[in-house]
Write a structure and sequence with these properties.
The complex is a heterodimer of chains A (673) and B (177). In chain A, 44% of the residues lie in helices and 21% in strands. In chain A, the strands form five sheets. In chain A, strands 14-18-19-17-16-15 form a six-stranded mixed sheet. The chains are: A alpha+beta (673), B mainly beta (177). At the A-B interface, α11, α21 and β21 of A face β4 and β5 of B.
């Protein structure tokens, strides 16, 4: 049986969305705490309110463990709210609690839609909080007050306050009281409200917000008050009488309503009790990425037709009304497209909490002390880039913490500050965005890299001929790692080769600068839009194709290639740079007639090979588009075509994939793949 | 909304009449710039750039040709209706035309002659179907089902065929995909 009952299941999505948004508050304030090494009273108050909301909504969803855990968090926060001075010296403990709590809650939220969801046991975190509550509550002799010292905090025997409206003559007021012992009373009330509103019009509802503050207590003690048009009394009563959770459904006369209104206390501090969702969440809706993409396409069509229209209008200058109208039209079209595009941009600052968190975790485990700074947080980057950059960024920062920054002792011995420093700087350079991670750690010695590469036979020329830049480029090759230790974070798998692969997959490049003893700076230079990749265009028969520029080593003419050609039966190769590299004839693959006039030297991650083309059309920035879904993996493997591209003139070309090409050529040569 | 499934855009392919539910149809385009694809069967004409998207163009004749041909004797009244219809259908496609029925407007490119394709949204995304001519919009409610079958093309393109006999009109094969 599913954990959430049929009645609660429809509310799960809202609960998950709200709670995830609230968890961001925890994460963000924890991240700020890392920077400032303290928590302001406002931050503590905000966390307290946040915890309070989660406590109530989790209880309403029947998630008693989560509600209990959050209650503990709330208790701990209430101590610091009353005694801000006790935070001092314990910021790190608190950050740990916030993260542990947030991790737990987020994990739970993520699992909740699974069919066999059962709440997990937060034991460890729960006990941690219990201990800390005891510790911080009693660490001052003068402290004797109650744990929850908020005057309006719900306490037994006190009925929270709501004002009751007076029913008009054409209205009828119901008072619904619930059966004793009914669980999740506000959720039940919500269901009643929703179902009732389908059959009649509800004029007023008290409490007005069923997921609000103190509603559970009010509903238990007072019940739910509903006002509806008198004409609908009968059908409403019939419906309500059927509800099993209700003990009593009574119609209250206008006089009785007045008396009832007197019974209900006035709110003590109305302003403070108005807990609203943080950051005006109601103003936001979620959109499907596909839908936005479609709108962008339509926006592009608007722009094209507007510019055509502009040309036509130039010939009709004798029509002032048309001109006035068209000026508005052009302006609005441009604004529409601009705003739409802005919607898909993401702020760099949104990447920061998770990076902060990672550095903090790693410092805690390794005993290192590191200042982590992010410059350019206000930069807005393309959403695709945002999605794809976080992984390589995390790798780089992990490496900087693990291998770059030395231990405290080591730093002090070298007359460096005990605290290391890592800076992530994001800047826009025209059509490129640069992400640079620099540290003031131990740096790398390019000679040592060359020595290691030489030992492992990885050098193409004598070590002495390598420039420092070239040497650093070696560590971006697969399996090359100069560090002998494997740590929990960097491990063996996340060397620079992984970073470089991800970066080049999106058409970016990686640059490393390093000086022994001074530190390392690694830059990822990414195109502003990662769907646009710098490519080389060429023609095979009637097919126009592009291949990302970063896969191409050289383009040889037929004459140049003829001198290097090696023929072995059907198989042809080029003797190029001391290597024998196989030639793939794409004319055969595509069934296209043509002439081999150019030989392109291409590399995939593992191989170098050559493809032939009729013509090379030049360099272009290709914005790749998905191909129809029916062109499945089999077709893509057979043709090495991964994507389509729409050229500036509207014609369609094909984006070849180096890895698939390399697979094709190995298949042709009868290799087992 | 249920009635939408009965409203068809009727088109001719070679000498037969077919219908696609108008609900999924985006536009009828003529003479698109076709980019052929390597290593595909003849049914795959190629791809075209429709509103900045790469859309496949299919010619379904190969499988549709195996259509069952059940001789149907038409009454004199039906024969007349059929002749009238043919005349109307010709007029409809002689120029750019806009079909409207049940709030569905299907735009047809100006100069709707030459290679015609119906761009429709199906379970596999936008697809263009080659047609010989577009006849018009018909409500097929009340038509008699003669046959039902599902045909599968290369790359998993599935087409459901329902052969209908409309009392007022000749046979029509309804496709969904």
């Amino acid at each position: 049986m599913a954990f959430f009952s049929e009645e609660l299941a429809p509310m799960l999505g809202t609960y998950q969305g709200e709670t995830s948004a609230l968890m961001e508050i925890f994460d963000n304030i924890a991240a700020k705490g890392i920077q400032t090494n303290t928590f302001s009273p406002e931050e503590i108050a905000e966390l307290f309110r946040t915890a309070h909301t989660i406590k109530s909504s989790s209880a309403a969803m029947g998630l008693s463990q989560l509600s209990e855990l959050t209650h503990h968090m709330e208790d701990l926060l209430s101590i610091f709210r009353a005694h801000p001075e006790r935070i001092e010296g314990h910021v790190d403990d608190l950050i740990g609690h916030f993260y542990d709590y947030s991790d737990f809650v987020k994990k739970e939220i993520g699992r909740m839609q699974e069919n066999d969801y059962e709440p997990a046991d937060p034991n460890g975190i729960y006990e941690q909080l219990t201990q800390d509550i005891a510790r911080f509550q009693n660490n001052s002799a003068s402290e004797t007050g109650p744990l929850s010292d908020d005057p309006a905090e719900e306490t037994d025997g006190e009925i929270p306050a709501f004002s009751l409206p007076h029913p008009r003559a054409d209205q009828v007021m119901f008072r619904l009281t619930f059966q004793p012992g009914v669980m999740m009373i506000s959720a039940r009330a919500m269901v009643i409200e929703r179902q009732l509103s389908k059959i009649c019009h509800i004029d007023t509802l008290v409490p007005a917000k069923l997921d609000g503050e103190n509603t559970d207590a009010f509903l238990t003690k007072q019940g739910l008050y509903l006002t509806l048009p008198a004409a609908e009394e009968k059908q409403a009563k019939a419906f309500l009488d059927k509800n099993l959770y209700l003990k009593n459904v009574e119609v209250i006369s206008a006089d009785a309503a007045k008396t009832a209104a007197i019974i209900l206390k006035k709110p003590a501090k109305p302003a403070e009790r108005q807990y609203s969702m943080p950051s005006g969440k109601e103003k936001f809706i979620s959109l499907r990425w596909d839908d936005i993409h479609e709108l962008q396409n339509i926006g592009g069509i608007f722009l094209t037709s507007a510019s055509k229209l502009r040309l036509i209008l130039q010939e009709h200058e004798d029509m002032p009304e048309l001109k006035e109208f068209s000026t508005d039209y052009f302006r609005m079209t441009e604004e529409f497209v601009m705003r739409l595009n802005a919607m898909t941009m993401m702020r760099v600052s949104m990447l920061v909490p998770q990076l902060n968190r990672m550095v903090w975790d790693m410092c805690r485990d390794s005993g290192k002390e590191i200042d982590f700074e992010v410059h350019g947080q206000d930069m807005e980057i393309d959403r695709n880039l945002y999605n794809n950059i976080s992984e390589p960024l995390m790798h780089m920062i992990r490496n900087a913490v693990d291998h770059g920054i030395e231990s405290k002792e080591e730093r002090l011995a070298q007359n460096k500050s005990a605290k290391g420093r890592i800076v992530l700087a994001v800047e826009n350079q025209g059509t490129q965005v640069v992400f640079r991670v620099s540290d003031n750690g131990r740096g790398m010695n390019y000679r040592k890299i060359l020595e290691k590469a030489e030992r492992e036979n990885r050098l193409d020329k004598p070590a002495a001929d390598y420039s420092p830049d070239e040497a650093f480029r070696l560590i971006m090759k697969a399996g090359f790692s100069t560090s002998k230790t494997i740590t929990r974070y960097s491990g063996r798998g996340v060397g620079m080769d992984v970073v470089n692969n991800i970066v080049s997959e999106f058409g970016g490049t990686t640059k490393i600068k390093s000086e022994p003893g001074k530190g390392t700076a690694i830059s990822m230079i990414m195109p502003v839009s990662v769907t646009a990749v710098e490519s080389l265009g060429f023609r095979i028969g009637n097919y126009t194709c592009v291949l990302p520029l970063h896969n191409i080593d050289a383009v040889l003419s037929r004459d140049e290639a003829a001198e290097l050609l090696v023929t072995d039966g059907e198989e042809r190769s080029l003797a190029y740079e001391k290597q024998e590299i196989p030639i793939l004839d794409l004319h055969t693959v595509f069934g296209a007639a043509g002439e081999e006039r150019y030989f392109l030297i291409v590399h995939s991650l593992e191989h170098r090979f050559c493809i032939t083309a009729d013509d090379v059309t030049g360099q272009e920035t290709a914005s790749s588009q998905p191909l129809p879904r029916m062109l499945d993996d089999d077709w893509q493997t057979a043709t090495a075509i991964r994507n389509g591209v729409i050229h500036a003139d509207g014609s369609i070309g094909f984006v070849l994939n180096a890895a698939l090409l390399s697979l094709l050529i190995r298949r042709q040569r009868g290799e087992d793949v | 909304m249920e009635t939408d499934m009965n409203v068809m855009l009727v088109f001719r392919l070679e000498d037969k009449r077919y219908g696609l539910p108008v609900a999924g149809i985006r536009k009828v385009i003529s003479n698109p710039k076709v980019t052929p694809l390597p290593q595909t069967p003849p049914m795959m004409i190629g791809v075209t750039n429709y509103r900045n998207r790469i859309v496949p163009l299919l010619r379904l004749t190969d499988i549709l040709r195996e259509d069952i041909d059940r001789p149907v004797v038409l009454s004199e009244e039906q024969e007349n209706a059929k002749r009238d219809l043919a005349g109307r259908e010709r007029r409809a496609v002689s120029r750019g035309y806009r079909f409207e029925k049940n709030q569905h407007a299907i735009m047809i490119d100006d100069a709707a002659d030459g290679d015609l394709f119906i761009i429709a949204e199906g379970s596999r995304g936008l697809t263009g179907f080659a047609v010989s001519s577009v006849a018009g919009v018909r409500d097929t409610e009340g038509a008699i089902v003669i046959n039902r079958e599902e045909a599968e093309y290369a790359y998993g393109v599935k087409v459901k065929k329902i052969v209908l006999q409309d009392p007022q009109e000749p046979q029509i094969t309804i496709l969904s995909y």
